[in-house]
Amino acid sequence: MADVLGLFTDILGDEGVVAGEQISEDYEHDEALSSHPVRPEAVLLPRTTEDVSAILRTANEHGIPVTARGAGSGISGAAIPVEGGVIVSFERMNAIIEIDVDNHVAVVEPGVRLAQLDEALAPHGFVYPVRPGESSASIGGTVNTNAAGMRAVKYGVTRHHVIGLEVVLPSGEVIHTGGKIVKVSSGYDLTQLIIGSEGTLGLVTKVWIKLSPRLPKGATVLAPFATLDEVTSAIPKILASGLQPLILEYIDLLTMMVIVMDSGIELGISDEIRQTALAYLVVSLEDNHEDRLEQDTVALGELLAGELGALDVFVLPQGAASDLIQAREHAFYAAKTRGFHDVIDVVVPRAKLPDFVRAVGEISQEFSSGIVGCGHAGDGNVHMAVLQEDPEIRNKIMHRLLSSGLELGGAISGEHGIGRMKKPYFLAYEDPTKVDLMRGIKRVFDPNGILNPGVIFD
Ligand SMILES: Cc1cc2nc3c(=O)[nH]c(=O)nc-3n(C[C@H](O)[C@H](O)[C@H](O)COP(=O)(O)OP(=O)(O)OC[C@H]3O[C@@H](n4cnc5c(N)ncnc54)[C@H](O)[C@@H]3O)c2cc1C
Hints:
Blueprint: H1 2-12, E1 17-19, E2 42-44, H2 49-62, E3 66-69, E4 86-89, E5 96-100, E6 105-108, H3 114-121, E7 126-127, H4 139-145, H5 152-155, E8 162-168, E9 174-178, H6 190-194, E10 203-210, E11 212-213, E12 217-225, H7 228-240, E13 247-252, H8 253-263, H9 271-276, E14 279-287, H10 290-305, E15 314-316, H11 318-329, H12 331-337, E16 342-344, H13 353-366, E17 370-376, E18 381-387, H14 391-407, H15 423-429, H16 432-445
Parallel strand pairs: 2-4, 3-4
Antiparallel strand pairs: 1-2, 5-6, 6-10, 7-11, 8-9, 8-10, 12-14, 12-15, 13-14, 13-17, 16-18, 17-18
Helix pairs in contact: 1-2, 7-13, 8-11, 13-14
The chain binds flavin-adenine dinucleotide (FAD).
């Protein structure tokens, strides 16, 4: 390995290769709970596509495992390196190459952070609406996990916005898929194949992103409900109303208590309501026009308090609204600091959300374990944190939770990916014929298996 490190230094110079004691502990893990940190042999910091190409050619020749890393905010262990492997971190490839205002396209390097892109797009009146809860996440990471977040209920997920990629294959060859064109029907869609592939097929070095108009007016409504069942049952009706929410999230009682306590937000909810409410719905609307927004907000309030049976409806002041949304985005950290051991990211058909949440309640009781959370209710995507120290019992709980979601027509992960943490469940439940096809695709892209080995499957 020492000799190979020398080869990497020849490619990147001394400042592009971090090894030994110099490697920060951060590179040993991502944000996955209960994962085992692994120290990489080296952290490689390319500046250009040519650097990445030379790194992969060398790694492929010497059989060195390569794990790509964006911001390391993933929750599935997909950015944890393997023993004897290197990390390719894209932190120095962080340029916004172009914002093409006529074609509504941004071209960016993979190390660009979501917050950085948002700041650059705002003056042009555009937005990239993919917004996972951690805005330090990188474009490369979000592409490779097919990240979603709160705004997916209106705008869809990463794969609905990424229209082209530059990808370096393990052989060192560079391919381009798509581009500034908004549609393409020329053979298999390799852009879509790479999106969500968790760094197992190629390394993304450039991304073409479709931009959306930035709507300047927003309103956020908080509705407490007497039961979680009523909250989840309300979702299809809100979506059928034509109000097109930007955000449609549920938060259970315990999670609400904790995030309000941690962030110190004052929501103006009376003690009486607080004592009765068992769950909350957060709905945000956006528009170009203040009067239209106001009309829609009134209509939403009437729907919630009337047919849907909310205990009350609060239109939050701007500051409290953004504080609550940020606190909800960071609910994961609240669970992490309180010692929760795992998170689920199950997605079910929206109308099955009440059945799934009921099943979760039963599983929680059966195993006397805390399972609490919130979720992108508008997408049928539930994030729940599991508190159970005993790994064997926790494994049983996870199997029950995930199989309950699958029985309802759902999937194990809606947006976090499989990584290392969900691999055993993925392999236990996914159709083996499909897994074989995926393995075949992996072999075509990466015959020597150097890219993120052990992620998705072994
Ligand atoms: C508080 C919190 C809230 C979150 N909320 C959400 C949410 O609402 N929705 C959601 O979808 N996710 C959410 N996440 C998860 C996380 O932010 C996303 O998975 C995000 O996409 C990870 O981006 P990253 O840059 O941190 O990627 P990393 O964690 O660094 O990497 C993720 C994967 O991408 C691969 N990768 C990275 N860069 C490249 C590249 N250039 N080429 C090839 N492969 C690459 C890595 O190898 C790994 O497999 C949340 C995380 C936290 C901590």
